[in-house]
What does this fold into?
Amino acid sequence: SRVVERARFPQAKTLKSFDFDFQPSLNRQEVIGFQDLAFLEKHENLIFIGSPGVGKTHLAISIGLSACQQDQRTLFVNCHDLLLRLRSAYEKGTLERCISRYTRYDLLIIDEIGYLPIDHDEANLLFQLINARYERHSTIITSNTELSAWVNIFQNPTVTAAILDRLVHHAHIIKITGKSYRLKQQN
Ligand code: ADP
Ligand code: MG
It folds into this structure.
């Protein structure tokens, strides 16, 4: 559908193809429950934390797809790409318009926060976006870094606290502590 195309998912993933038995640290009922989009109605965020390969992006896409199927404007974006876009808008003097465009999505999925370091200017831009969406629309975050170590990503305690404060205030934090599915074959 148009809504799915506009969401720009990198792959098609659904919860049907997710093997919950492989990832026993996950609360299956909780994750399946997110498909009813009650979190979206309440403008709550979902934060998936876990090491590479545990299924964070798969789950984020699956829930995003459910949102699309229920006609919610959804966008999937890689964190690094998002920061490049915000930075370029800032340099062109169109930051306000850019942020308001990202703010309009009912669901924004920001994938891979923390894979690359984020400098101070980028952290401020990300804060402005998160703040604009705060209590207005839901955001799904995936990260390989525990929230307590996010200061290492942003390298600044003040902006880290400001971002976390907005993100975590109304959020479900889903920690995945199991093994990488990518390495499954090699066991
Ligand atoms: P992460 O984002 O946590 O690094 P991904 O979601 O990209 O991990 O998962 C890596 C690959 O393994 C993807 O192809 C994904 O579909 C698959 N995968 C991960 N966990 C599971 C699972 N429990 N059941 C089925 N496929 C999985
Ligand atoms: Mg991922």
